[in-house]
Write a structure and sequence with these properties.
GO terms for molecular function: ABC-type transporter activity; ATP binding; ATP hydrolysis activity. The chain is an alpha/beta fold and about 575 residues long. The protein has helices at about 15-25, 35-55, 70-115, 115-120, 125-165, 170-215, 220-225, 230-280, 280-325, 390-395, 445-450, 465-470, 480-485, 490-495, 515-530, 545-555, 570-575, and strands spanning about 350-355, 365-375, 380, 430-435, 440, 450-455, 465, 505, 530-535, 560-565, 580.
């Protein structure tokens, strides 16, 4: 398992400008970027000018041609304008935040669902959950507000420097070095904070993986059966401690940064008082001290918020890594995919021609030079020992593993970001599969998989209504659904439910027995009306009575369909036309 599971990527260095640009594009569309930035700029400039104009109201020597009442009126106008712009900015920001959450989540989900089977084999579930919980939560709750706050603070800082320097030119002699110290502090602390946040995010994945392994499947039952409760709790505590240590160090780093920024602010304030004591009147010194306090407070907040923004941006960077570097299944084989008729496949003939493939580089072939011809409407039973390659036939048929080396998704090295090259001396996957004479490598993957109905060993039901689980595409009328339920002998069970077809299916279909879930899956396959039906150990976990119902359904409802049956029980495949 250690050889299959890949190490989680740990990026280094500062956040690239591409990440900031992509996050901005998730907030607003490309056509609204400039208006959105101008809106932030105007609203902050109004606040700065409003504060400066307030100083002219109390100073009769400034703009003496304007009466006191007019000055108050102009100040009120600036306040009203600032309020209006902030309201507009707030409304647009709320819509932008919603849009950002939707766009980021959609892109991540699409790339996860579009990843090849090899990705899920080599990636722990906790790592994927970490993207959808920790990283998405940070981008939704913290990142958007920090992005807006930091943008406004930088504009306010520039405005304060300009306004104070107009009245007090020597302020630049102290203000610019202090600003440089704040900037150096931000670079020094920011580098450590980014890496600590990355380490904390990575250490969160094993905790989620451990939790997921515990509560899903037979995890709890197995732990209790072997009396491993204490060992499992001890392992969870160890993983949780590793994650907590990194989080504590990250939090203590914030306190350290706050202490040093306060020291810089104190030194700056002492310099202003000392220089102003000998060169300024008491009234101007008071104004300079007040302005300096605003400047230092802004400097401290910018350091904290800017570093916090960079640290939180690591979560978006982790999401962006999946959204850009994750290998994807080939949605179409070439630039000119075959345009098939809606009735394809009409006969359901399946031909394997010298099919050989391995699941990943470095492993032996699981199928080697396999060839057979399954006529349309024929029933074929496939049996063999565990690991003989029965399910591998389905992997090739559904193109979960590509036979054409050109179509195989390239796995990405998480440390370099470049594709992992296979051994040039290794013999590649080869062969081809034809359905009704059409090479499936030249067919859209989505079109291919919609044309084949599968009934797996573990019956899968989705949260929602029973009608949705039977007829996912909403193509059939209720009369047809009830008719199919009668065919699979589930009509009486469903009719006894108060809501009938609108009965809510619990998570995993827990409100139905294993046999009933399997019969519902058979009903779904009948409603799909595919010419090819694949059964992968479909009766392995049901009782003899349910197995008899399923065999009767196969004989009656799949009479003119090509049925591919993988099973261990001989009575499951004894009615097949041929055995492989």
């Amino acid at each position: 398992a250690k050889q299959i599971m890949t190490e989680e990527e740990q990026q280094t260095g500062s956040i690239s400008w591409i990440s900031y640009l992509q996050y901005l594009l998730s907030l607003v569309s490309v056509f609204l970027i400039i208006p959105y930035i101008l809106l932030i700029l105007i609203s902050e400039v109004i606040v700065i000018y409003q504060s400066w104009w307030l100083g002219t109201v109390g100073n009769p020597s400034l703009y003496s041609i304007i009466s006191y009442n007019w000055k108050i009126g102009i100040y009120a106008f600036f306040c009203l304008g600032g309020l209006i712009f902030f309201l507009i900015r707030g409304v647009i920001s709320s819509f932008a935040v919603k849009r950002s959450s939707r766009v980021i989540h959609k892109q991540l989900l699409q790339h996860i669902l579009g990843a090849p089977n090899s990705f899920f084999e080599s990636t722990p579930m906790g790592r994927i959950l970490n993207r959808f919980t920790g990283d998405i939560t940070i981008t939704d709750q913290n990142l958007n507000m920090l992005f807006l706050q930091v943008s406004g603070m930088w504009i306010m800082m520039v405005g304060q420097i300009i306004i104070i320097s107009v009245d007090t030119v020597w302020f630049l002699a102290i203000g610019l070095p202090s600003l440089l110290l704040f900037f150096l502090m931000m670079l020094f602390y920011g580098r450590a904070a980014r890496n600590l946040n990355r380490l904390e995010s990575i250490s969160r994945s094993p905790v989620l993986s451990h939790f997921s392994e515990t509560i899903t499947g037979a995890g709890l039952s197995t732990i209790r059966a072997y009396h491993l409760e204490n060992d499992w709790i001890r392992k969870f505590d160890e993983l949780n401690d590793r994650q907590s240590i990194k989080y504590i160090i990250f939090s203590e780093g914030k306190k350290w940064a706050s202490l040093y920024t306060s020291a810089i602010s104190t030194i700056f304030m002492v310099g202003v008082v000392v220089i102003g004591w000998y060169s300024m009147s008491p009234s101007k010194l008071a104004v300079a001290i007040s302005a300096s306090m605003t400047f230092t407070n802004l400097g401290m907040m910018i350091v904290q918020q800017q570093v916090d923004l960079q640290s939180r941006m690591t979560s978006f960077d982790r999401i962006r890594f999946y959204s850009t570097n994750l290998p994807q299944e080939i949605k179409r084989s070439n630039d000119n995919p075959l345009k098939l008729k809606k009735t394809w496949p009409k006969k359901g003939r399946i031909q394997f021609e010298n099919v050989s493939f391995r699941y990943r580089s470095g492993l032996p072939y699981v199928l080697k030079d396999v060839s057979f011809d399954l006529k349309g409407g024929e029933k074929i039973g496939v049996c063999g020992r565990t690991g003989a390659g029965k399910s591998s036939l389905l992997f090739a048929l559904f193109r979960l593993v590509e036979l054409d080396p050109k179509l195989q998704p390239k796995l990405i090295d998480v440390t370099t970001g470049f594709p992992i090259e296979s051994d040039p001396n290794e013999e590649p996957n080869k062969g081809r599969i034809l359905i009704d004479g059409i090479d499936i490598s030249k067919v859209f993957i989505s079109r291919l998989r919609r044309s084949i109905a599968i009934i797996p060993q573990d019956p899968t039901l989705f949260t929602g209504t029973l009608r949705y689980n039977l007829d996912i595409g909403s193509k059939c009328k209720d009369d047809r659904i009830w008719e199919v339920l009668k065919m699979v002998e589930m009509r009486d069970v469903v009719s006894q439910q108060p809501l009938g077809l609108d009965t809510q299916v619990a998570e995993g279909g827990s409100n139905f027995s294993a046999g009933q879930r399997q019969l519902i899956c058979f009903g779904r396959a009948i409603l799909n009306n595919c010419k090819i039906v694949v059964m992968d150990e479909a009766t392995a976990s049901v009782d003899i009575e349910t197995d008899a119902k399923i065999q009767r359904t196969i004989r009656e409802q799949f009479a003119n369909k090509t049925v591919f049956i993988i099973a261990h029980r001989l009575n499951t495949i004894m009615n097949s036309d041929r055995i492989m």
